[in-house]
Design a protein that fits this description.
Layout lengths: L2 H15 L5 E4 L5 E10 L6 E9 L14
Antiparallel strand pairs: 1-2, 2-3
């Protein structure tokens, strides 16, 4: 599952389909996510800006790394 894609889809659904926050979506892998967001209108009434974006869903470690500073 991709949290970034799920969040973008939820915001797009809000903008283009008028769906209100929170938005519940299921990923292709079958995991459920809920995304919350607020919209603010910009100077152009047809342009929206999303803020206060939060996502709830499964999180698991998929990578570990080590950084060494010199």
């Amino acid at each position: 599952a991709c949290g970034t894609g799920i969040t973008a889809s939820a915001i797009a659904a809000g903008i283009f389909c008028g769906i209100k926050s929170p938005v519940s979506l299921r990923s292709r892998s079958g995991e459920n996510f809920t995304t919350w967001f607020d919209f603010t209108e910009t100077e152009k009434k047809s342009v929206f800006s999303a803020k206060n974006i939060f996502m709830q869903g499964l999180a698991e470690e998929v990578f570990q790394g080590k950084i060494t500073f010199e």
